[in-house]
């Protein structure tokens, strides 16, 4: 059987993209990074993808009159590349109907909190400011809401009183980099269902 084709969507640094590539390279994730989709032409993740030889679709939303138009273009590119799964990895946009409908049940996201706590932007800062003693990471299916889709996997990070915000971020990211590739592997091998 051919490998599952992943399209990773990212807007920034791409440390989760790196973790997925590492897992593919070390054989723990049996998939192909078939495409990187990025909405920020200057993002670091674009350089990384070019360096790794991952095909890219990079666009500037400001060049399109409406979200439906750039999402329609993305769908075209995804279908052309015969993508099986959309992996959101720090893609900081809500997915609209145009992209959701043809890929419903095949789009997952990673979020840096224990959802449903702290959805939306700066989840790490929200948790830190709230003074919670336990936070973590959630992998979930994407629906039309903001971080509201069915939860697939979670892992916890304990926050002690001495921890700075940066230390919390780095603890969360370490957990993300293990949890995301492992969860994707379970999904593509049929171990989780929507
Ligand atoms: C990750 O921590 C991810 O969980 C978060 O953005 C970061 C991207 O980092 N996503 C969200 O907050 C989505 N609501 P990366 O570019 O280094 O992978």
UniProtKB/TrEMBL annotation:
Keywords: Purine biosynthesis, Transferase. It catalyses: N(1)-(5-phospho-beta-D-ribosyl)glycinamide + (6R)-10-formyltetrahydrofolate = N(2)-formyl-N(1)-(5-phospho-beta-D-ribosyl)glycinamide + (6S)-5,6,7,8-tetrahydrofolate + H(+). (6R)-10-formyltetrahydrofolate binds at residues 67, 92-95, 109. PROSITE patterns: GART. One of its GO terms (molecular function) is phosphoribosylglycinamide formyltransferase activity. The record marks 147 as: Raises pKa of active site His. Residues 5-184 form the Formyl transferase N-terminal domain. Pathway: Purine metabolism; IMP biosynthesis via de novo pathway; N(2)-formyl-N(1)-(5-phospho-D-ribosyl)glycinamide from N(1)-(5-phospho-D-ribosyl)glycinamide (10-formyl THF route): step 1/1. GO terms for biological process: 'de novo' IMP biosynthetic process. Its EC number is 2.1.2.2. The active site is at residue 111. SUPFAM superfamilies: Formyltransferase. Catalyzes the transfer of a formyl group from 10-formyltetrahydrofolate to 5-phospho-ribosyl-glycinamide (GAR), producing 5-phospho-ribosyl-N-formylglycinamide (FGAR) and tetrahydrofolate. PANTHER family: PHOSPHORIBOSYLGLYCINAMIDE FORMYLTRANSFERASE (PTHR43369:SF2). NCBIfam families: PurN (TIGR00639). This is Phosphoribosylglycinamide formyltransferase. The gene is purN.
């Amino acid at each position: 059987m051919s490998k599952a084709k992943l399209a990773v969507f990212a807007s920034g640094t791409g440390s989760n993209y790196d973790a997925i590539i590492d897992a593919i390279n070390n054989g723990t994730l049996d998939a192909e990074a078939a495409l990187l989709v990025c909405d920020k032409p200057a993002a670091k993740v674009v350089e990384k993808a070019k360096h790794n030889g991952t095909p890219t679709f990079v666009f500037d939303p400001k060049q399109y009159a409406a979200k439906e138009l750039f999402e329609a273009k993305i769908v075209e590119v995804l279908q052309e590349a015969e993508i099986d799964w959309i992996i959101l990895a720090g893609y900081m946009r809500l997915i609209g109907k145009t992209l959701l409908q043809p890929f419903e049940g095949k789009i997952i996201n990673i979020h840096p909190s224990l959802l449903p706590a702290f959805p939306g932007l700066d989840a790490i800062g929200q948790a830190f400011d709230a003074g919670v003693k336990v936070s973590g990471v959630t992998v979930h299916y994407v629906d039309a809401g903001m971080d509201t889709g069915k939860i697939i996997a979670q892992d916890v990070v304990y926050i002690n009183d001495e921890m700075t915000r940066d230390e919390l971020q780095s603890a969360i990211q370490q957990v993300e980099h293990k949890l995301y590739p492992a969860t994707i592997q379970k999904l593509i091998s049929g171990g989780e269902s929507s």
